[in-house]
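Extended Data, panel c. Modelled sequence:
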Amino acid sequence: MTKENKWIYEEFADIQEDENGSLKDIKFKNTENFNFAYDVVDRLAAKNPDKTAMIHIAKNKRKREFTFGDMSTYSSKIAAYFQSLGIKKGDKVMLVLKRHYHFWFAILALHKVGAVVIPATNLLKQKDYEYRFKAADIKAIVCTADDDVAYQVDQATQGTNNDVIKIIVRGKRNGWQSLSRAVYDFDESFVPEERAGGSDPSIMFFTSGTTGYPKIVTHDFRYPLGHIVTAKYWHRVDPDGIHFTISDTGWGKALWGKIYGQWLCEAAVFTYDMDGFEAGEMLEMIQEHRITTFCAPPTAYRMLIRKDFSRYDLSSLKHATTAGEALNPEVFNLFKEKTGLLLHEAFGQTETTLTIGTLKGDLPKPGSMGKASPAYDIDVVDSKGRSVEPGKTGEIVVRTDRGKPVGLFAGYYDNEELTLNAWHDGIYHTGDLAVRDEEGYFWYVGRDDDVIKSAGYRIGPFEIESVLMELPYVLECGVTAVDGRLRGKVIKACIVLVEGTEATDELKKEIQKYARQKMPSYKYPKIIEFRDELPKTISGKIQHNKL
């Protein structure tokens, strides 16, 4: 990468690399007033206005290209529009925009205004909106006209929430403002009433826990800088290439892969406004648009490898990444066989940016999340907060006694008790269990509250699920414990089979035989249950407590 291609992130970060370009250390600077919309997008627009920022493919396959000049201009117009509606610094605004290109205009506009952005999925229903409007004191919502999203919002705003400003995209509706008005009625000479940046709140996510109401994670304006590591060292984006992360904008993963780090590295992002994932269509997109770097969850790769790759020209693809769930060795090996590429895993939370990953220079170990990011002081500790030896299970924590890392959340909104429960005595507790090996690679075990206690052992469901997912006919699985007659808790696996596979008693025995060969006797599932689907949170996480 030339000096011209990296001036932005060098201005905000001191990066130390070894002779091979691997990240040794990173320290952030000039963050006191940092605002991504002004300090990155507007400056890129001034420096190189015609450089492609995003290639957008609509549902009907219409292609649009947006430059950094476009992003700067349209976000300023919409910022002026938002300000005319009374939206100001600190106001909370929900965006429910699927993969519409308007999401990028709107999030940048809200950064310019200084409002707090709350990305949300179009899968929410009336009660979800009612809870969110009240819990976060929502000032406005910008949402798609697709499906029944606006109807659900209207139902939720009956009565006490009638004062929520409702703005619709790609359509018209009684009682709603139209975002298209901003493009015609306002110009790009936007001046904020009060500039926001640095430690001011910028992003709020509703997390989808397995029990109870979602928590509200708050990040400040420095959060995008934490994704320099995500894009430069994990995604390995090329400033002259095109990066494709498939996530919908309603999830935090979209901010990992569809805007912040990529544009800090001046790479173009690719977006396909699809309603659902279809493996063949994804391969066609990579081929037609010459995608250079790609990120998807393991489930997507499991679908991709079933396709005949000889039908597609994937020669443009240089690097592939994955995160979010178990990646079984079969998928890793088949993808390597078909493409010659290794899948690079990573780990992070809604509360963080990438904390552990297979970064540039690290050789992937199938099943491992990788090594700790130099941006975070990561440790594995026991129940008393003491570091555990390599090979021992412990909780992943972020040590903050020497300072809060850029990218770590500011706290849970309006809930000091919950914040202090997770973050105290200079340690942020992730609640995720892992084993760290002698080389510093992390191996995920499971959520602390999902851990099974059976026959005197502590067993993480994730490690059993990972083994079962190696079987080619297992589409999904969730492991839990049920009461046994003699041994107390016994392991039970709930399995969703690949379409066309017959659920038989013989197959159950085959699965158990495979599990016994792969794991100790106290871990293998004594009970196998086939299901059509597994209970999940709205973000797709398996609800082990409901199995």
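The mean pLDDT is 91. This feature is highlighted in the accompanying rendering.
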